[in-house]
Amino acid sequence: MEDPNINNQTEASAEDLNKPTKNRWIVLFYGVVPAVIVVGVAFVVYGYYEIFVPMDGRRAAPVEFTVTRGIGVKEISWQLAEAKLIRSVWWFKAYVWYKKLSGSMQAGKYALGQNFNVPQIVETIIGGKVILNEVRITFPEGFTYQQIKTRLAEQNLPANSDLGSEAVGDYQVQYKFLSDAPAGASLEGFLFPDTYIFNRDDKNSAVIKKFLDNFDKKLTPFLREQIDRQNRKIYDIIILASIIQQEAIGEEDMPLIASVFANRLRINMALESDATVNYVTGKKDRQPLYEDLKVKSPYNTYQNRGLPPGPISNPGLAAIKAAIFPATTDDLFFLHPLDGPTVFSKTLDEHNRNKAHWLK
Q1: Which CATH number fits domain 62-126: 3.90.1010.10, 3.30.1490.480, 3.40.640.10, 3.40.470.10?
Q2: What is the C-alpha separation between 220 and 272, in angstroms, rounded?
Q3: Which end of the chain, N or C, is more open, meaning fewer C-beta atoms within 10 Å of its C-beta?
Q4: 277 pLDDT exceeds 80?
């Protein structure tokens, strides 16, 4: 017969063996799980710090950062770290991967600051919010070479210096419309007045090329054909157009003023243009002083017959067309009243009467 005490002892021994195992799991649960939670929380807090806290929230001075076309997130993250714009390459890559933006990085130059956090940096780069490396400048019709140089210099253009004294001869091979101009002449007259977009790193040749390319486009084959048919030179047309541009109050006057000058040139009469005197003196007088009319200069058309040796400004298309297609009149004189339209006359007597009436 089996002793019941033996069975009881066996069951008790089994329970005793299981007790340490249960205790170990309890210790493991209450020891490891909190540690994992602590590590997890620390990981999240540290990740939040690395991603959302800028390198230096006080420093807003931008740093120019370039993303080269074709490079990946790994290279970008290392470059950001080297520029001290992020703390952690790993966390930057993790954020980009989590947001699934690896293929969205845009090449270009960016203005990033140490006050940017990772999301702001990523948003700037994926949004293509590049530094504008372009500048838009408007040059009015009638601006002189010097005025153009001054306006460019205000925008620190050209990047290497100022326009200098560029000569026609430097561009005659590339631009046929310059072929009949003296090689040593300046580009006055050919820097077509318009609104241009320049890159801030454009040098002399790039800046001038924009002007000359535009002139080449505006002086159409039709206009060049008309100049040829009249047995005239493009350079002479531009000289005359530059005077018309400065003399006319509005475009409607230009063909009529062109007619006066064409009539004077035909009979070898001095142009007597106040604009040419102002070009010499640097003044902007509606009526130059008597002593200014006597100034010695080949550009003074009171003292010299025919056209001056070069343009006195950079004319617009309307003035160029007026020089090619002057109105048909017998007028030899004109004046600008202080108030009212331009007054034209055929004889000196008529002109003097108009002066007495309109210029009181």
Answers
A1: 3.30.1490.480
A2: 31
A3: N
A4: yes
